Amino acid sequence: MRRFVGTLARIVFGLTLASLAAGLVTTLFVDIDVLSGPLDRLPKTVGETIDLALLAATHIAIFASVFVLITAAIGECFSIRALPFYLLVGVMIAFLGFSAQYASEVAGQPTILNNYAVKAFLTVGFFGGFVYWLAAGQFAGRRPEISPTLNPAPVSETTPPDTNDADEARVVITHPSAGAPQPRWRMPKLERLKFAKRGEQAGPSDEITVSAAPATQSRTPAISVPLLSATSRTRD
Description:
Blueprint: H1 2-30, H2 42-78, H3 83-103, H4 115-135, E1 169-174, H5 189-198, E2 207-212, E3 222-226, H6 230-234
Antiparallel strand pairs: 1-2, 2-3
Helix pairs in contact: 1-2, 1-4, 2-3, 3-4
């Protein structure tokens, strides 16, 4: 329903502008020397020209409204947006208006069957069709553009979450390279006594990594605690 109302409003808007353009061209053809008068009479002349253009536009809109609606319906149904189509239709409507005007003449009265009148009607139809195409014809049958929906970020399938390690913790001992800088800190006396009592000695480059996997993460963060040998730590 909203689309129909918008299309109808666009057609009416195009008909209004096309009628105004056709009325102005008709007035200029009737009095082609409208701007050649003295400058002091120019405002009055322009005002009279506008009044005549509005009057002619009203008559043109009443006569051409049915033909414009038929043309607009065809253009909307078949999505016709080509400029030559509307120019041809405008000239045809002007020719129908010329034929109607000629058919209503009274015998013995001046006739409009002359080259100047034919050129005037064809020019009026040309400009009317062009203005209608600018205002409405070039958008005939165009559907509203739909913006693409925002998709969530893709989840990598190569590292699926491991639910089995949600509540587990593991200790991993790694051996960094020999050239890596070693932190300098003093082992507590209680730890030194435990190593001396058990007769064990930690390697100078041994490193204990404690990692825990929380329930909401798929990869387990690691906390590294480096251990130095008892002999190297006591020297500090």
